[in-house]
Design a protein that fits this description.
There is one protein chain. With 350 residues, the chain is an alpha/beta fold. The protein contains twelve helices and eleven strands. The protein binds pyridoxal-5'-phosphate. Residues 78-80, 105, 149, 153, 179, 181, 206, 208, 214, 219 line the site of pyridoxal-5'-phosphate. Pyridoxal-5'-phosphate (PLP) binds next to helix 4.
Amino acid sequence: MNFENFILPHIWNLKPYSSARDEFKGKEGIFLDANENPLGSGVSENWNRYPDPLQLGIKEQLAAIKSCSTNQIFLGNGSDEAIDLLMRMSCQSGVHNIILCPPTYGMYEVSASINHIEQRKVSLSKNYQLDVEGILQTIDQNTRLLFLCSPNNPTGNKLKRLDIYTLIESFKTGFVVIDEAYIDFSDEPSFILELAKYPQVIVMQTLSKAYGLASLRLGMAFAHPSLIQLLNKIKPPYNIGGATQEIVFKALKNPSFKNDSVRLILAERTRLVDSLQNIPDIIQIYPSDANFILVHFKRATELFNYLIESQLITRNRSSVALCEDSIRITIGLSEENDKLVQLIKQFYSA
Ligand SMILES: Cc1ncc(COP(=O)(O)O)c(C=O)c1O
């Protein structure tokens, strides 16, 4: 697999910034190399020293959790940083294009627009599966990235694995990016386990969902080591702050929180779906492999506004093609879900 063909030449040849913490990696000594403040930070903990630019402590833990090696892991300031860097690494405005399969996560489109990259959209089918033929017809020699999101946001379902294999095996001019932000809620195995077989695949995951660390901003991309090296070359040198590294390091030592969260959220999802099923004004509850459900309601926007009036906030997806009159509902705590059901019943009985 020759990555060079998929990477912009100026990125391939880039001489990256070499930070103080790149040049001296030791932890002991008198540090007069990075223009830091030697006195501390003026808060109870000291954050005056620059953090590890390659976040090795966290990567060692993640490699064990995800069954891969540290050199297959890139860490970004949220998955959104990885999405942006992938575009900047491989696409030249006015030349290359990316393929998206809407309805899907909105940042692929926004990031492409910021980078002024042509987006080719091949809609999902009515049951929210990939239009494999349509995608294959849309790919040309300038297609550099194909974004697949499974389980998909906002629809909640996983994509058929066989379709993903077909696309990986047929797409020869760029990378297949599989966004697995919600994989922890699914019984589907991660494509991380298939990276050795498919070096053109990039898997994205995040600590923002099942791990409960959205505010720390820690997104992950898993890929072939040479691709990870390129991403590390173009990222801002200290893209993951020291506080985030320290807290994530502690959080990853406690797998039971994430496992218990997933178990409870999935049980609540089943309970919520069961309660909603008895409401006749609900047209469809779509199957979910994630920590949210997409629901097709009668008068969805009116209902959405009614819920907001009671300070219950959901995500109205009614303006999104193929999600007309649908609301995306994150699974909350048991009492929050009960309140939601009560308000929906109240709305339709008024
Ligand atoms: C499919 C998908 N990918 C990525 C993200 C963003 O993750 P992060 O918080 O790591 O930027 C989201 C957030 O909602 C998402 O739905």
